[in-house]
Structure formats: C-alpha cells, structure tokens
C-alpha cells in the first residue's frame, strides 16, 4: 500500500488537533511526526498525538475523533486479549493491492502513559501551525522507543530500532544546534523518572553509536 506523504501526515494531524481543540482539549505531536516538524529527514508513517488531559482515557479520545469526522474509524486489535481498538484515518486514492483504500494510523495517548510528560501548554512548540512536544522530551521518548524495540522479543519490533537510531542521531544534532539542554530550568516540569532512565539508555546508545557521544554531552548527559 502506498504510504502517506508528509503533507497527508500533516493534514491528518491538523484534523485531529482541530477536533480536540473544538472540544476544549489541547494536544501536541510527538514521535516521528514531531521529529519531522523539527527537521528530521525521514517521512513518518503515522501520527502520534498526546492529548493533554486527565478527564478522558485513550479509548474515549479515539471515539471522539470517530464521532466528529467520517475520516476516522476504529478497527479491533489483532491481539485477541487487547482491550483497545486501533484508530485509522482514511486517505485519498487507492493503495494498490486489490484496490485497498489508503489509510494512516493514528496513535492517541495521554500523559503518564509510556512516561509521556504532561507538557505545559506554554512549552508546546508551534511549528508550521502544528503543536509539537518540546525537543528534549521528544528526544528522550525517541530514545526510550529505541531501547524498547531493541529489547523486544519480536523480530518486527527489533527491526524498528535502526530507524529509531537514525531519527535520534538527526534529532540529537538538531538539539545541539539549538542549544537545548536536559537540565534547563524551563524543563523542570519533565518527569524525573524519564530523565533518570534516559541516563542508562544514553550509555547504551553511545556504545552502539560512539559518534553520538559528544552530542549527548552537549545536551547535558555527561
């Protein structure tokens, strides 16, 4: 199936952000879509969005999108024991392969899940009209994803670590170029656990990618 273009990823993200905003909910992109907004060269395959609320759970937020737009729809998880549904957004055109419709996966999360911080709205970065998680927490969550994929027992998950690493190396260079630092005073809202766990992950990353050592030092991991 023909993957989403960057413009389509942006359109899906914008539609979701606007729906949540219309319901009084702030949100921001993270994951590969946010990395692209900051300048990482890889085109993302999906949209990762954290909704900054404690009043809804993830399934309620997915349903809100489905109820608000015919472009969004839910599919039961392939895991028979899962209690969640997978959210997709329809894309224009056909994807080939028996005429299947094109689509984009949309992951909706809330603060606290997977160590995602509750980002103060004043710290959210507006880039080309889209809200993005600040650079340092975005980098540390990408690093967490790299570590989780590397340690997975599933071969398909393990393969993702190499794409993660490419994103991290680019994002790290961008962070250094923007003088971002993990212990800056304006990042005091970040979960301490995320920073502490990142210290060990940084050491593991440096072992596999020694070229990154100086950049990690420059963003505050000595």
TrEMBL record:
Q: Give the matching Gene3D superfamilies.
A: 3.30.460.40
Q: What InterPro entries does the record tag this protein with? A: NT_sf (IPR043519)
Domain of life where this protein originates: Eukaryota
Q: What is this protein called?
A: Uncharacterized protein
Annotated organism of origin = Lentinus tigrinus ALCF2SS1-6
Give the lineage.
Eukaryota, Fungi, Dikarya, Basidiomycota, Agaricomycotina
